[in-house]
Design a protein that fits this description.
alpha/beta
């Protein structure tokens, strides 16, 4: 585990409490609340919501970031997005970008009603796919005062066009058609089908990007199976719901988030760097793009020697006034 991969990091400087709260659709969202041990509950403190990678759960990357930021003085809340992990939602592993964004706003509802949190100093941090969900939420929720993303995936563009716009319109239409036909199967009681996600075995033909995800999701480095799932289904969204991403345009109107600050962090070698660059180009000031040398996409999930926690601390300290 080079570069200090430490996904399951725990800290004796932080207390952790499992919490639950409802989103606007009355679905129960489950999260972990991290609080610094030297914490004065009589005062009001800044807080950060932390979202996990797409297809992951809070125990994968989000808890690590939440713990590290709590060590630095912030109240933090990692959450399982609806349909994933311990949060409610049927069918399991369903894709619903609007509900994912709503979960972040519901997390702000929760934090902003804690006596020890200053509701005027709440930020949001999204990793991988959650980067695009945080942006989607922030566009219509000004209570998120500072927004940061790490290794962001624009889940809309990634599904419409694939990486580097390598998917043709005809290929996209074929994917949509297959999902539509599968709806008939499942509507009449047939077996649910799943798509994408991370491969379960490697061979000589496995793509390098899949190898990168495999090393995190299918090894002891980051593998985690919640009670609501199975090792065969983790990371895999349902086939019929995944096409919902085709209608997801998180960067549309991203400039309206201004004057709230935005920070985009990506690895120099990340296959996903195009999404952070696109968001930065489209966003209005104040904004910042930070490229981490020698880092790939998944590196910034858990490799603590590469993750720029100092930069994240400075960003949120400055704009949430720790």
């Amino acid at each position: 585990m080079s570069h200090g991969a430490d996904n399951f990091y725990e800290s004796d400087q932080v207390t952790v409490e499992k919490v639950t709260f409802k989103n606007q659709y009355q679905m129960e969202v489950v999260g972990n609340l991290f609080i610094p041990r030297d914490f004065d509950r009589a005062e009001k403190h800044p807080a950060i919501v932390v979202g996990h990678p797409m297809g992951a759960v809070k125990e994968q990357s989000a808890n690590l970031y939440a713990t590290k930021m709590a060590e630095r003085g912030f109240v933090t809340l990692s959450l399982d997005l609806s349909f994933w992990g311990e949060s409610e939602g049927q069918p399991r592993n369903a894709v619903s970008p609007d509900i994912y964004a709503e979960d972040f706003s519901a997390a702000v509802d929760f934090l902003g009603t804690r006596a020890f949190v200053d509701r005027e100093r709440i930020g949001a941090l999204g990793i991988c796919g959650s980067g695009s969900f945080v942006i989607s939420a922030a566009k219509i929720d000004p209570r998120m005062k500072a927004i940061a993303t790490v290794s962001m995936y624009d889940m809309g563009a990634a599904n419409r066009h694939a990486l580097n716009e390598s998917q043709t319109l005809e290929q996209r239409k074929q994917i949509i058609a297959e999902a539509a036909e599968q709806r008939y199967v499942e509507f009449t009681g047939g077996e649910t089908q799943y798509t994408s996600g991370t491969v379960h075995e490697l061979d000589e033909n496995t793509h390098p990007i899949q190898r990168e995800f495999y090393d995190f999701y299918r090894t002891s480095r980051g593998e985690y199976t919640p009670e609501s799932s199975s090792p065969q289904l983790t990371t895999h969204p349902t086939l019929t719901s995944n096409v919902k991403f085709m209608n997801f345009y998180p960067f549309e109107d991203i400039e309206t988030i201004s004057p709230r600050p935005m920070l985009f962090i990506a690895g120099e070698n990340a296959h996903s760097i195009e999404f952070s660059e696109d968001a930065y180009r489209l966003a209005a000031e104040p904004k910042e793009l930070v490229i981490i040398p020698d880092a790939g996409h998944v590196d910034l999930y858990d490799r603590v020697d590469l993750i720029p926690f100092d930069k994240l601390e400075a960003f949120f300290q400055s704009h949430l006034k720790l």
